[in-house]
Design a protein that fits this description.
mainly alpha; 79 residues
Length: 79
Amino acid sequence: MNHNQIWRAIELFAKEHNMSCSGLAKCSGLDPTTFNKSKRFSKYEQPRWPSTNSIAKILAATNSSPQDFFKYITDDKDN
């Protein structure tokens, strides 16, 4: 599992729930910019990972299980 795979899973999870990443963040009680692409790397290009708290909040808000989220993490060579 890598940085790109986690962020891609968030994008797909939001899409499955008919939301943008911003909409998913808002409905989860997070700042709407939490999952913005611009926040995925620091100004020094260090990867920023979503927190477990953010993941837990999107699961609670969508009444989903960890398995529902992690099924979007694949070993595709593109990630």
